[in-house]
TrEMBL record:
Belongs to the NAD(P)H dehydrogenase (quinone) family. InterPro entries: Flavodoxin_fold, Flavoprotein-like_sf, NAD(P)H_dehydrogenase_qn. GO terms for cellular component: cytosol. Gene3D superfamilies: 3.40.50.360. Residues 17-192 form the Flavodoxin-like fold domain. Pfam families: Flavodoxin_2 (PF02525). Keywords: Oxidoreductase. It comes from Pseudomonas cavernicola. This is Flavodoxin family protein. One of its GO terms (molecular function) is NAD(P)H dehydrogenase (quinone) activity.
Amino acid sequence: MVETTKSGATPLEGDGKRILMILGTPKSGSLCHALGEAYAQGARSEGHVVRQLKLGELEFDPVLRGGYDQSQNLEPDLLEAQRQIHWAEHLVFVYPVWWGGLPALLQGFFDRVFLPGFAFKYRERSHTWEKLLSGRSADLLVTLDTPPWYFRWIYGAPAHRQMVRTILGACGVKTRRLTEFAPIRQSSEEQRQGWLRRAELLGTHA
């Protein structure tokens, strides 16, 4: 039985992998939500424990107002998000690409949650830092209106590089798979059903 909570927390945990899914879109009832549910269904069928954070339902200020120069108290939902990330062995991010980058809500989540002392730690007298989230893996499920080949070869896939290298990689999270579902706008119902089956299959290999 699954609790109905903002975090999607599951009280019953077995011997499967601990998976935290982060839905990085403010839109409810979107294709991203359907892909996330399909992935979770596949993962649970293999005995994994899946919890969800739906950022559109959390209450927090997405703006890091003072940068790292001053402290900004974390809202209860963000404190819970940090606890869930610490709990997880595997992270799943499901989100759309908007304007070639991440949705502002997801970017704001990273700005507020992936803080020094939690996600990384600067080394004194050095230009390097410790990666405090090392040991975790990630899957990225990404929707786009742009054809994948165009996004990659013409635009340079900026959202993908940001997620894999400068956010997750910088904190020690190794991206295992990045799966694109695109182009969305011209997709048929048959294509979308195929994408859902693909997401479920990805979940079985979590």
